[in-house]
């Protein structure tokens, strides 16, 4: 039994989605930190068959005491299957990867043990994904991004045809091993296929998350969603990390707020030059970000001495801006400073 403590009125317990044949959908969450822990806890609480691949102190705590989610709408302790060896879990109906981008190369060889020929792999991560140009169409179709998939381990070993996007809106922190706190009241996981189809595999997964109390729309234009989310990361992550404070603190300083607005405008121009149909309300985004004390995950990484997602969040978007002939001087400045700081801390090595 899960121990429950809920904030607010008791939500209706929904039945988990089922796959063809009536069996419960087996989902593996690879990487049980802030985002993976949040997703796994909701699924487990809703009764889905969820297993976690984790490591270290976090895994030890989940095995010993279970996983605790503290979200505005739900506080719950769950006890999902948790392991450091994906081979012990066997093939899944869906895999959700929620590690930081620099960890992808090391997990790539271990993912196939979780896969049947039809198993989708959702990368619930920030930034430009390694598969971005798969099914993109146009002259860039099928282009690989070496900085995000060194040696092609994911493209060749997992395959872009399995890949799907997971765009996460949830300001989340691991506050202690096995304990995940979500700050914003309305979390969201936008799912999307690279080819824009509303596939049965994502619709089934979306139903599962919706049943678990997490909004999970399936987007037909998920690259637009990837960029819209990335703009928020660009406006918050680097400046918070340079200042060593959370979002509300930077947004309260007029000069920094102005830089956040400029970064959003530059990011939007890059996205539009790449064909994305997005138009953001920069003022509203900065105001919204400034309401949360949240330390962006890239700052969390810096403070905890973990490899930082500089390539997926900054280097690759800036390289794409350069190719598209879009000037992004403010973004280049904050990215350059952050890169230097990350290199000095031994948390990032630029590609040669
Ligand atoms: N936190 C947030 O608010 C948000 C984060 N995101 C994005 O979501 C993605 C995940 O971020 P987040 O959850 O914050 O990151 P965390 O660092 O909190 O979680 C990642 C987890 O993966 C584990 N991990 C890394 N490598 C392996 C491995 N080889 N085997 C097993 N487990 C492994 C890490 O273990 P260890 O701790 O030992 O490194 C950690 O527990 C990132 O792309 C991030 O940018 C998106 C929206 C919001
Ligand atoms: C919550 C948000 C948007 C903060 O920048 C994020 O994605 C992160 O922490 O990485």
UniProtKB/TrEMBL annotation:
Pathway assignment: Cofactor biosynthesis; (R)-pantothenate biosynthesis; (R)-pantoate from 3-methyl-2-oxobutanoate: step 2/2
Catalytic activity as recorded in UniProt: (R)-pantoate + NADP(+) = 2-dehydropantoate + NADPH + H(+)
Drop me one GO molecular function for this one.
Answer: 2-dehydropantoate 2-reductase activity
Any idea where the Ketopantoate reductase N-terminal domain is?
Answer: 27-192
Q: Which UniProt keywords apply?
A: NADP, Oxidoreductase, Pantothenate biosynthesis
Recorded GO CC terms: cytoplasm
Q: Has the keyword Zinc been applied to this entry? A: no
* Residues in Ketopantoate reductase C-terminal domain copies: 222-339
* Enzyme class label: oxidoreductase
What biological-process GO terms show up in the record?
A: pantothenate biosynthetic process
Pfam families assigned: ApbA, ApbA_C
Q: What is its EC number?
A: 1.1.1.169
For this chain, the family text in UniProt reads:
Belongs to the ketopantoate reductase family.
Q: What does this protein do?
A: Catalyzes the NADPH-dependent reduction of ketopantoate into pantoic acid.
Q: What is this protein called?
A: 2-dehydropantoate 2-reductase
